[in-house]
Amino acid sequence: MTRLFNAYVMVGWSAGSKPATGKDSVWIGVLKPDARFRLQFEAHNPATRDEAVALLTKIVGDLNRLRQRVLIGFDFALGYPEGTAAALKLKSPDWRGLWDFLGNRVSDKPNNINSRFNDAAQMNRIMTDQPWPFWGCPPRDAQRTLTSTKPAYDHAGLPPLQRRTESALKTKPLWQLYGAGTVGGEAILGIPRARALLASLGDEAKVWPFQTGWKALKESDLDGLKALIVEVNPAFAELKPEAGEIVDRAKVRALAEHVARLDDAGRLGAAFAQAKGGEADRAAVEAEEGWILGA
Fold this sequence. Notes:
By secondary structure, this protein is α/β, with parallel strands linked by helices. The chain contains nine helices and six strands. Strands 3-2-1-4-6-5 form a six-stranded mixed beta sheet, with helices on both faces. The longest helix has 18 residues. The chain is globular, with a radius of gyration of 19 Å.
């Protein structure tokens, strides 16, 4: 059975504010064919997000030149709860408008110093002029429209607390930016990087489900594509660190091996299909929220 993809690149992101390697830093796991067309794994641990995106672009470019179609998985959210773009008063009230908004606003310097807390405070100012819906930051980064702890507020008239995919998984909302198990800061810093990668790949790459539809994918749906960008969650792959292996490395390895096994078995295409809900859910997921592959 022919696989949908030839190589699998999984990225474990980090919102750290200084260069770092090892635990709690960026890891890129690459599962690609060797000279005998057997899938072999390699891992990279760049110290900064700048280095990570440059390396990721090179990895995907090298694979594409070998006519390898690549599945690229990021472990941060690629979208926000339905209505976020409208609440931000964006001209394009969808995922693309949000990607452009963050891409043009977020500062993420080569040394990892970044503006994520200030960006969240500014978004709060636009949406409510209050310290919500985004919340959570170190005390030194708190300001009038962003608090360190969760504020009590009326959710009426605001975007939902969670995307549909987060509700299905019972994970923490993107509005929380700081603290154990949160991913809000990673999304603010990650989406502009995914946007830049997509731009560099041009029409030969797409983002699921925004540009493909929330549906099962077959070979004909990927015709002409060199890469597909998706959102992943390390929890979906069985984690078995090898002797001495850093957990963050093991996560990207397990994810890459997991999706490759699904592809080998002819079951990966079905994982892109609508998981639950009706037409309104499909429309929201495709237009703004996105979905975690396998949720």
